[in-house]
Amino acid sequence: MSSFDTKYIFVTGGVLSSLGKGITSASIATLLKQSGFCIGILKIDPYINVDPGTMSPLEHGEVFVTTDGAETDLDIGHYERFLNTSFTSKNNFTTGQVYLSVIERERSGGYLGKTIQVVPHIVDEIKNRIKLAGEGREILVVELGGTVGDIEGLPFLEAMRQMKQEYGMDRVISLHVTLIPLIKAAGELKTKPTQHSVQELRRIGISPQIIIARSEKEIPLDLKNKLSMSCDVDSDCVISAHDAQSIYQMPLNFYKEGVLSPIARFLKLPEFNPDMKEWDILVKQILAPQNEVTIAFVGKYLRSKESYKSLIEALIHAGANLDTKVNIEWIDSEEIENNEESLEKLRYVGGILVPGGFGVRGVNGKMQAIQFARENNIPFLGICLGMQLAIIEFCRNKLGILQADSIEFNKETKEPAIYLIENFIDTNGEEQIRTHKSPMGGTMRLGEYECYTKKDSKLQKAYNGQSKIYERHRHRYEANPKYREILEKAGMIVSGESHGLIEAVELVDHPWFVAVQFHPEFTSRLQAPNLVILEFIRQAINAKSHSSK
Ligand code: GLN
């Protein structure tokens, strides 16, 4: 099918935010993909930031990094995890990017002296970006961030209205995700906010064809009929999206609710059925697993667990594939610093995980946890900052280099075990490294790079013996190769490298202690769990079963 024929499913949100538009979009796209369609998916964010790269994780949640190094919204992570597909910078754009490119074009004379306005120029730029994301796809699912009624969402809704006008009803449909609140005192589900939200959409010229009704409880038939009547949609077009135990149940629930038949009818698609057999098995293993293991997650952004979204999901994927429930014991690294006794909690877990992070706050607590894992033979996985701290901890406590530090925490350190890659690039002229100048200053190494694994290492075994793997990065600092020899002599070997950069270290005399500079969580999917995370969980399960004997 040529890009000319691409069909579009627009997903808008009503009443309030956080209704799960991302999961709804990903679930519907999954059903279509499993039915054999070539699917694309796009998230539009109405905020003015050019990308979320500079936002605090506490403000925005995780920054998800694509293979081509784009810093994107965390919903792109959901899309990849559900669709088992890698997306790129084309699959997410913001108001900031739209305005930036229109203004840059205006400054360089690209509009030939015309007055630049929201309609048509901004809206045209939006339409072009949507069409670009849909190129070569049979169906593009477009999720519009924010809530209908927001001022900043208007140009996007106008773009959607125009595309419907341009392409016709059988190429553009609108799906509205809205809240049906349960009023506990009356025990009643209320439809009024949804009616108002649909009216607001109609006022700007959009009549949604499908209503996704989010609710605590399943929406009964009489209420569906009422919604169908008041929102002017066909009776099979009100889909109940009631709370589920796991987000991975949602595609199955939507399928049962019959969402595919109105989509097929409106878009005039040939008959199809999704193959959800494998998905169904994995979901059963999430809901009723045979086994259980607890992982200590030593982080510092615990007020907003959304900052660790991909990693939390990656643990679920590993668990689902090993038929094991992975419980997370959240450990605040600053709490360890204030109260050493909290380290004792680590004695009872299957494995210790130190994730990525920025800044000096909480790093000592993380290093105490790393030391505990090292000295007590507890399976350990360090990610990004987690690897950098594993090296510093080893230098300080095993090699006696007490001043060992990262330039990130101490610019003046005499022992920069972790240093700036800018220096590295300068001294070695490694030009093949893709780096992005950050607007905050400094250079970030972003996106996918190859990593060569050491023969017979724990890392290579985890990756099923592959000597070359691909993983994604988001960091500024690097392990300093000056320390490599002394680290290796003392038992911390480099087990992954990329063009002279240290990508992974591990301990020789430890059951399983592996730390990686990349973020394995970004490539984990329900149907294809990340292999080093899978191995970590496998090791944690084994360690637990040995210790309970
Ligand atoms: N702060 C460290 C760096 O910039 C680690 C980053 C991370 O963990 N993502 O290198």
UniProtKB/TrEMBL annotation:
Keywords: ATP-binding, Glutamine amidotransferase, Ligase, Magnesium, Metal-binding, Nucleotide-binding, Pyrimidine biosynthesis. Allosterically activated by GTP, when glutamine is the substrate; GTP has no effect on the reaction when ammonia is the substrate. The allosteric effector GTP functions by stabilizing the protein conformation that binds the tetrahedral intermediate(s) formed during glutamine hydrolysis. Inhibited by the product CTP, via allosteric rather than competitive inhibition. It catalyses: UTP + NH4(+) + ATP = CTP + ADP + phosphate + 2 H(+); L-glutamine + H2O = L-glutamate + NH4(+); UTP + L-glutamine + ATP + H2O = CTP + L-glutamate + ADP + phosphate + 2 H(+). UTP binds at S17, K190, T191, K192, P193, T194, Q195, K226. It is an enzyme of class 6 (ligase). L-glutamine binds at G357, L385, G386, M387, Q388, E408, R476. Gene3D superfamilies: 3.40.50.880, P-loop containing nucleotide triphosphate hydrolases. Residues 1-269 are annotated as: Amidoligase domain. Its EC number is 6.3.4.2. Transmembrane segments: none annotated. Belongs to the CTP synthase family. CTP binds at S17, D150, I151, E152, K190, T191, K192, P193, T194, Q195, K226. The active site is at C384 (nucleophile), H519, E521. Homotetramer. This is CTP synthase. NCBIfam families: PRK05380.1 (NF003792), PyrG (TIGR00337). It comes from Helicobacter ibis. CTPSs have evolved a hybrid strategy for distinguishing between UTP and CTP. The overlapping regions of the product feedback inhibitory and substrate sites recognize a common feature in both compounds, the triphosphate moiety. To differentiate isosteric substrate and product pyrimidine rings, an additional pocket far from the expected kinase/ligase catalytic site, specifically recognizes the cytosine and ribose portions of the product inhibitor. Catalyzes the ATP-dependent amination of UTP to CTP with either L-glutamine or ammonia as the source of nitrogen. Regulates intracellular CTP levels through interactions with the four ribonucleotide triphosphates. InterPro entries: Class_I_gatase-like, CTP_synthase, CTP_synthase_N, GATASE, GATase1_CTP_Synthase, P-loop_NTPase. Residues 306-537 form the Glutamine amidotransferase domain. GO terms for molecular function: CTP synthase activity. The keyword Ubl conjugation does not apply. The gene is pyrG.
